[in-house]
Task: inverse folding
């Protein structure tokens, strides 16, 4: 493990422990007493909301707060999803806190997009909204970190799940589907090596070969309706994507991400229900 310069050995041990502690079953209620302000305990990170786009957290992403000194401060340790981190938290009021990042490990991890976003959001002034078994931390820009004491939702299976497309990915960008096309593009990968669904307007069928973390769609057979407006725009994008050769796939919770390694174009989709 490669760490930041001058990271003390004791702190490295804390970070390593936080990087593997997600599965320990802490319900957030045990440990040190609650401070005069704010919240304590170990919390699973459920998701981030960044510029209107939801990023589902890796299973290992978590945050632990232990009160110190006057009860208005807490020591934070946690995991961005792969790398461990520390921070100092000051509860400025009943509804606001300030997070000051400390040290972190510096490993090259699979989901650096989420890790970078989490690190960027968990610093500075944050508004705290507490609910039973959940906390939402909101930045001045309106971005959010969602925390929960409840167990994480298991990853949905790629096969035999109805996937509803909810955003399109570009080279380093993500955008929600245009109004009028939302909820209309959906597809299912069958256990028999087939794929079928709707491109947003026309229905399609194709072969689908899954090899490890990649999937390749064969030529699409579609219905022949003339599609214009938002539906037509989404349909053209998905037709091009599915015909782009091998796509990398990754599932976290109920979210599927498909991306073309050649140009970074892709989509995210939500698990709607198991296919019959």
Result:
């Amino acid at each position: 493990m490669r760490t930041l310069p001058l990271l003390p050995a004791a702190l490295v041990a804390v970070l390593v422990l936080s990087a593997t502690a997600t599965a320990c079953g802490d319900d957030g209620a045990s440990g040190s007493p609650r401070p005069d302000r704010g919240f304590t305990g170990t919390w699973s990170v459920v998701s981030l909301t960044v510029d209107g786009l939801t990023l589902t957290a890796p299973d290992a992403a978590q945050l632990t707060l232990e009160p110190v000194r006057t009860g208005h401060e807490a020591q934070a340790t946690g995991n961005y999803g792969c790398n461990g981190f520390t921070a100092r938290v000051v509860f400025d009021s009943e509804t606001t806190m300030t997070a000051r990042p400390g040290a972190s490990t510096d490993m090259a991890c699979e989901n650096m997009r989420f890790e970078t976003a989490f690190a960027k959001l968990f610093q500075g002034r944050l508004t705290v909204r507490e609910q039973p078994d959940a906390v939402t931390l909101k930045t001045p820009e309106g971005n959010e970190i969602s925390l929960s004491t409840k167990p994480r939702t298991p990853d949905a299976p790629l096969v035999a799940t109805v996937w509803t497309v909810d955003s399109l990915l570009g080279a380093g960008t993500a955008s929600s589907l245009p109004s009028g096309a939302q909820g209309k593009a959906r597809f299912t990968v069958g256990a028999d090596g087939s794929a079928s669904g709707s491109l947003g307007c026309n229905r399609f069928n194709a072969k689908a070969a899954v090899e490890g973390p990649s999937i390749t769609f064969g030529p699409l057979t579609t219905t022949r309706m003339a599609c214009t407006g938002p539906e037509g725009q989404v349909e053209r994008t998905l037709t091009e994507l599915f015909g782009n050769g091998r796509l990398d796939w990754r599932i976290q919770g109920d979210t599927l991400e498909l991306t073309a390694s050649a140009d970074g174009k892709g989509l995210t989709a939500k698990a709607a229900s198991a296919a019959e």
The CA atoms of residues 50 and 124 lie 16 Å apart. Helices lie at 9-19, 112-121, 229-242. The radius of gyration is 21 Å.
